[in-house]
Amino acid sequence: MTTEQLQPMPSDWQRALAVVAHPDDLEYGCAGAVAGWTDAGREVTYLLATRGEAGIDSVAPDRSGPLREQEQRASAAVVGVNAVEFLDHKDGVIEYGTALRRDIAAAIRKYRPELVITLNHRETWGGLGGPWNTPDHQAVGRAVLDAAGDAGNRWIFPELTAQGLAPWDGVRWVAVAGTATPTHAVDATAGLERSVRSLLEHRTYIEALTDEDPETYCRTFLTGNAQQAAERFGGKPAVTFEVFNR
Q1: Residue 207 parent element (H or E)
Q2: Average pLDDT in the 188-216 region?
Q3: Residue range 185-194, pLDDT digits in tens
Q4: DSSP states of 33-89 as a string?
Q5: Tens-place pLDDT, residues 99-119
Q6: Mapping DSSP to helix (H, G, I), strand (E, B) and coil, where does residue 203 land?
Q7: What confidence tens digit (pLDDT) does each residue in 53-92 have?
Q8: How far apart are CA 145 and CA 166, in angstroms?
C-alpha cells in the first residue's frame, strides 16, 4: 500500500460541476468536500445521468425515480447545493457513447465550470481484485473525462452551438472520487458531519441496502474513509480524488 502523501486539491476556481450516474453517488464521500467548497462561496452544480429508478428492489421504478430525486435534492441542499439536474438516461443500462458525451458536454457549456467531478470509472473498486464496479459508473465516469474536452471543441456537437451553448474550454481539472489511486485530497473536518446528514437523506435507499441503523451505517462508512485518508494527508480527515489536469 502506498504511503505517498496526497496533495491539496486546487483551490483557484469558482465553479464546479459534479456529474455522476445515480442519486447517492456523490454522498458516499464527495459531499464532505462539497460542503467546504460551498462554505467558501464556490458554486457547485450536480448533474445526474439517471434518477436511480432501478436501485431499490422492493420499489417499482415509477415510484422509486421520483422518490430518489426528492431525496437527492434534499441531500444536495444539506451541503449548500441548490442546482440539481437529471439527464433521464435509464438506470442500470446507461450506454457510453456520443449521446452521453453530448449531454454532459452540453451541461459543461451551460455551467462553465473550471472543475468537473465524477466517480470511479474503472472496472473495479479498490484496484485489481476489488469488487466489480457497475456499468453505469464506468460509462458516466469515462464520458465525463471525454466530455470535458468535447465541450471546448466547436466542431464536436456543433448542434450545441446552434442551441446557444457556446464552446467552453475552461475546464482545468477533472477530479475522480472513489478511486484506488488518489492524488489529491480535501480537508473534510468542517464538512464531515454535514456529509453524514447528506447521505442520511437517502434514507429509503439506505434502509433497503442494510439492516444496520441508517445513521450508524452512514457515520461509520464516511468517518472510516475520511480517517483512512488522513494517514496520507497530514492526519486530517479527508476526501480523496484522482485529479486529471487539462
Answers
A1: helix 203-209
A2: 96
A3: 999 999 999 9
A4: HHHHHHHTT-EEEEEES---TTS-TTS-HHHHHHHHHHHHHHHHHHTT---EEE--P
A5: 999 999 999 999 999 999 999
A6: helix
A7: 999 999 999 999 999 999 999 999 999 999 999 999 999 9
A8: 19
Grid cell 422509486 is found at 64
Residue 132: DSSP 8-state:
B
Distances (CA, A) of 69 to 1, 89, 128, 218: 38, 13, 33, 19
Average pLDDT of the chain is 96
Per DSSP, 28 falls in state T
Residues ≥6 apart with Cβ < 8 Å to 33: 9, 186, 188, 191, 239, 241
Per the DSSP assignment, residues forming a β-bridge with 174 are 116, 244
Q: Is 221 helix (H, G, I), strand (E, B) or coil?
A: helix
19 sits in which H/E element: strand 15-20
Write down the residue that cell numbers 480537508 correspond to. 187
Residue 71 and residue 203 in contact, taking contact as beta carbons nearer than 8 Å: yes
* Grid cell 465525463 in the structure block, residue: 144
| Alpha-carbon span 94 to 106, nearest angstrom | 17
Mean pLDDT (whole number) for 18-44: 97
Q: How confident is the model at residue 47 (pLDDT cuts 50, 70, 90)?
A: very high
